[in-house]
Design a protein that fits this description.
The chain is 11% helix and 31% strand. By secondary structure, it is mainly β. The protein is elongated.
Length: 183
């Protein structure tokens, strides 16, 4: 099920200039986030020094994968591609940490089909009819007769039935011991 709470994402560089307050944007990649802010202290994610950006994300569509993850202590939440956000506020601290608070909002139009909404699938599938065997074979015959059969042009010569290969000249010895070529 979707998670409706605040999750966190860390990037080990300063992205604050790309996200001004009020900006609306889409994240097009699958985004790995966490429900536990302390996970970001690890040098593998955000660390505790240098230029880095921490996103505080209010989401309505995060998917918790903790039960399926090898690293269960990370409390991983995935955001599907095409999620749409607005920057609510941001803060830059003296130690190089930039915090950007974003909230998931409804996009101006549908970005991607929701992979978890099966009602959309019914609309996309063709309507099926139970056609009889004769109707199916009639459709196949109509289709196959509509496709032109390939044929060779009449100007292509037919290959000969027998191919005659001339024999090479054979050397023979004469009475004087010299070789002559016989044809």
């Amino acid at each position: 099920p979707s998670e409706h709470h605040i999750i966190w994402r860390g990037v080990p560089e300063d992205l604050s200039a790309l996200y001004p307050k009020g900006k609306k944007f889409a994240w097009w990649a699958v985004s790995s986030c966490t429900a536990a802010i302390s996970v970001l202290e690890s040098p593998l994610y955000l660390g505790t020094s240098g230029e880095r950006t921490m996103f505080s994300i209010q989401t309505t569509s995060g998917k918790c994968i903790k039960a399926h993850s090898y690293f269960q202590q990370e409390d991983e939440i995935l955001l599907a591609p095409g999620r749409y956000f607005e920057v609510i506020d941001k803060l830059s601290s003296a130690d190089g940490l930039h915090i950007i608070h974003i909230r998931e909002i409804a996009p101006p139009y549908q970005m991607l089909a929701d992979p978890f909404d099966l009602s959309q699938l019914e609309k996309m599938l063709p309507q099926s009819k139970s056609a009889s065997k004769s109707e199916k074979s009639q459709k196949i015959n109509e289709t196959s007769s509509a496709v032109p059969k390939p044929s060779l042009p009449s100007t292509v010569p037919k290959p000969p039935k027998h191919i005659v290969v001339p024999k090479p000249p054979t050397p023979t010895a004469s009475k004087t011991g010299k070789f002559k070529l016989l044809k």
